[in-house]
Design goal:
By secondary structure, this protein is an alpha+beta fold. It has six helices and seven strands. It has a domain of about 110 residues: Bira Bifunctional Protein, Domain 2 (BirA Bifunctional Protein, domain 2). The N and C termini lie far apart (about 40 Å).
Length: about 200
């Protein structure tokens, strides 16, 4: 199948890499580095032109480096999993590695086509994460989640294990119809005001 001038194979199995592995593959300088060392990631982020904040942990730094250097270069269908807790405020911690979450994104031709994760159902952990998100929001992070006291209260009553997956149907249509822009496949495009 083609997307613009690029040939895309949807043959299985799709590649699977952790976010840390994706960053290592895209950045030879980080091949042997400790990607959980905030000072290593902070220095590298600055080197490649990312403006950082002192409050960012290793997870935010890793994600920023991933988005700048690795994400757009992932061409064949790939599941990128184990996103850091710091950037996944609603996702459940991984049982084997509590610094990352049970979350994945499907990337094809440098674009995200899907996002999925196991839902966080621990009210104490969720409360702490919302508090961290509020600190990030106060520092100007427009993507930070608001504190949701009603949600915390509902979690305190109990929530069974749950998960969700969002697949971009418009992005899939873009791929299947070989359209370079999502604007060409959106069923109901944004209306412009009448002049």
């Amino acid at each position: 199948m083609r997307l613009g001038d690029e040939e895309i194979s949807l043959a299985r199995p799709f590649k699977r890499v952790t976010m840390e592995e994706a960053v290592r593959e895209a950045n030879a300088e980080l091949a042997g580095a400790d990607l959980r060392d905030k000072s290593v990631l902070g220095a590298y982020a600055k080197k490649i032109g990312i403006e950082t904040k002192a409050s960012w942990g290793w997870g935010k730094l890793l994600t920023e480096i991933y988005e700048k250097t690795a994400e757009r270069n992932i061409r064949r269908p790939t599941f990128v999993y184990h996103h850091p807790v710091e950037v996944s405020p609603l996702a459940r911690r991984n049982d084997d590695d509590p610094d990352v979450t049970d979350r994945w994104e499907l990337l094809i031709a440098g674009r995200e086509f899907g996002n999925a994760f196991s839902e966080l159902n621990d009210p104490d952990d969720q409360c702490r994460r919302f508090e961290e998100q509020m600190k990030a929001k106060a520092e100007g992070d427009v993507e930070a989640q608001p504190f949701d006291a009603d949600y915390i209260r509902a979690l305190e009553y109990g929530m069974p294990p749950a998960a969700g997956c969002g697949l971009g149907v418009d992005r899939m249509a873009m791929l299947l119809l070989n359209q370079p822009s999502i604007r060409d496949v959106i069923l109901f495009p944004h209306l412009r005001p009448e002049r």
